[in-house]
Amino acid sequence: MIEKGFAMYIYDYKFPDLSEIAYNHLLQHLDAYKVKPQFYVINFDDPRKSHRCNPINPAFMTDISDAYESAYTIMLNLNRSWIQKQGDFFVESPIILLAAIIWFLKIYENGKYCTFPHAIEFLNRPYAQIFPILTSYDELANYLSPLWTLGRAEHRISCRGR
Q1: Could you give the 3-state DSSP secondary structure of residue 136?
Q2: In the UniProt record, which is one GO cellular component term (predicted)?
Q3: Domain-by-domain residue ranges, the chain?
């Protein structure tokens, strides 16, 4: 694929074995690309050896459905058993809450804090602090109304999975 000029994502389970092979192969086939490609690495085991990226970059979102897609992808990858439980209240609720947080971070101060670490930090606040902030925005109040009703009734929604 490299010699045909394609972009690639490579999951390197035994980093850096496959990454080094791919990088050297790329260097040998630079002539296949009209624009010189760049090679990036995201190393979850050692972030110091990683390039930085923001999977919830506000520039990539135009409406709340984009935030939902990001939240959906994140949450289902964190808890694979939810794939069979899609539509279930205890699966959809945390996804909706994370989507609302992502969208809030996008619209708050022009997305200055719209990063994954900020979303996780915000999500770890008590619900009594989260919901009043989110529901102060009309577009999020409607989106969160089923969850907010439960929150006001002193119920707790578990975003940690079941």
Answers
A1: coil
A2: plasma membrane
A3: 2-49, 58-152
